[in-house]
């Protein structure tokens, strides 16, 4: 029989926060590509692959009050964050480009936005992945203290 571990109210708020972050990030990426018509590069697609499922996983976990979802969320958010960091460094540090340059479509070092001189689309994705990861880690620690 499956036993679902229900979280305390702090855990539920963290799940809700992480879900909202993933929702904003997903709608933000769709806004940039579908409304502003920015063509995503290869690394942007990989970031989307790791962000989009989080909307559903975190949404279902939040409504079911299931804190065990962190074991599915953490790998996605950490890997997605690493891709975002590499992409951001490739945009901001000259010569940091990967071993395999983008060969089709938009180059990965193109900056469609550059707010305040440092906020680019990969930076926004990195921020979202980081907030989700921190929320899941904080939830894990809160669970260990209860046990």
UniProtKB/TrEMBL annotation:
Keywords: Cell membrane, Chaperone, Disulfide bond, Electron transport, Membrane, Oxidoreductase, Redox-active center, Transmembrane, Transmembrane helix, Transport. It holds the Pfam family DsbB. One of its GO terms (biological process) is protein folding. It is found in: Cell membrane; Membrane. It is a multi-pass membrane protein. It comes from the Bacteria. Signal peptide: none annotated. One of its GO terms (molecular function) is protein-disulfide reductase activity. Required for disulfide bond formation in some proteins. Belongs to the DsbB family. BdbC subfamily. This is Probable disulfide formation protein. It comes from Lysinibacillus fusiformis. The gene is bdbC.
